[in-house]
Every structure is written in C-alpha cells, then in structure tokens.
From TrEMBL:
One of its GO terms (biological process) is methylation. It comes from Fusobacterium hominis. It holds the Pfam family Methyltransf_25. This is Class I SAM-dependent methyltransferase. The keyword Ribonucleoprotein does not apply. The keyword Transferase applies. Residues 40-131 form the Methyltransferase domain.
C-alpha cells in the first residue's frame, strides 16, 4: 500500500501545518492526563509528526507501508524512535504506551465495523493504565466537498494530482494519477488506488464502548486540514 504515494507524500503534504497538529495533540494530551510520556504514532507515514513529538516524548511509529517507513527511518535515524511495520486493525508492537495517536484520517482507511472494533481492542491492549488515544476522522460532508463531481485536482509547479472518486457498497474508492516533474524537465506518470470508509459518530462510539475504552471528548477542528472530528479516548 502507498508504494507510489510514499515517494510523493512529503511533496504532497508540503503545505501541511504539522506545527498546528503538534499543538493540538499537546492540548489533548494535557487534557487526557496520561501517567507517562511513551507514545505510538499509528499510521506514522514518513515520520513528520514523530520528528516533532520526539522532542518531548519517547516515541515509536507504526505503518502498513514499508516504503513510508523507509523514508521515516532516514528522517529519524538520529533520534531514538522505534519503527514497526504493522496493520492498524490488529497490531502488537510488543510494547505498551501512555499515548497513542492516529492522524490525517488514517482511521478512515478501516473498511468495516468489525475491523474498527478490532482496531480499538488492539489499542486497548497496547495502552498502559490511564493511557489515552487521540485520532481524527472525516465525514461524508468533507468527502463531498473534497470531491465535487467526484474529482479532486491539485495542480502545482512540479506536481499534479488527479483523484477520481466513487462510492460502491458504502466504500469510497479513489483512483489516483500523479504527474511528477523530473530532473530532465519532463513528467513522470504514476497511478495508485485507495479505499476509505465514512463511519458515523454512533458507530464509532459503539465500537469504542465494545473495546472497553472511555470516550472523553470529541473536538471539531476546521482550522488545520478541513473540518474533521478529533476523538480523545482513555483506558
């Protein structure tokens, strides 16, 4: 997964405000009051958030994409950050944590309610007593606004992204085409496909309850990367 996107991810996310994400996490960690400072970033991607959080926390990262982790490893090689290849649905790094985070609507890549509940149960097992889990999800309105006429286009000086979208059986399918300008001045073309699922607030709450986690807060944030719901859970 994300074999192609991993090569373009940092360029695609060039204008993302990671500092704002870090500040939001700090606010919610303070509110959640975990007992310690060990942290796991689930779906850590190329490690940009870990670079920042590792200043104040003992961090690990996990991702399903080996290609993403290879890039993260290069960024974090001078920091004491462990990186794990794993599926967020059912995972075990062999360690437990005081804090877990999963950002940039990573949880929306889970495709069924059974898998969502399994994810929360894995989180529960890997959290220390009084530990917290922070994650964000997007809703159907977000997707509709992102894909007017089922199309998203991001055209930049050296990168063009075209995402074609459709919904089938309750799953959002995205066929992505990328044009990347190379050192010769011509353009290389890459294609890749992704899937996402929009869960309702009630579905998430029920899955959280079934995993024996406590819902502390749902925060609506529309300042960082479009309107999204950020959940704070506690063990």
């Amino acid at each position: 997964m994300y074999k192609i996107f991993s090569k373009l991810y940092d360029k695609f996310m060039k204008y993302s405000d990671y500092g704002a994400w870090e500040n939001q996490m700090e606010e919610l960690i303070k509110e959640g009051k975990p007992n310690g400072n060990t942290l796991l970033d689930i779906g850590c991607g190329t490690g940009e958030l870990l670079l920042r959080m590792a200043k104040n926390y003992k961090c690990d990262g996990m991702d399903l994409s080996e290609d993403m982790l290879k890039i993260a490893f290069k960024k974090l090689k001078h920091r004491e950050v462990g990186l794990f290849l794993g599926n967020m649905i059912d995972f075990d790094t062999g360690k437990t944590y005081d804090i877990m985070v999963s950002l940039f609507d990573t949880v929306n890549h889970i495709l069924t309610l059974d898998e969502l509940e399994c994810h929360f149960k894995s989180v529960y097992k890997s959290l220390n007593p009084n530990g917290i889990y922070i994650f964000d999800v997007v809703d159907r309105k977000f997707m509709n606004e992102m894909f007017p006429n089922d199309l998203f286009v991001d055209n930049r000086k050296d990168l063009t992204c075209i995402w074609e979208h459709e919904i089938d059986g309750g799953i959002d399918y995205i066929d992505a085409t990328y044009f990347l300008k190379n050192s010769r001045g011509s353009w290389d073309k890459f294609t890749e496909s992704y899937t996402k699922k929009i869960f309702t607030e009630d579905e998430i709450k029920k899955s959280v309850l079934n995993a024996n986690l406590k819902l502390i807060k749902i925060l609506i944030n529309d300042k960082i990367a479009g309107k999204r719901n950020i959940y704070l859970l506690k063990k």
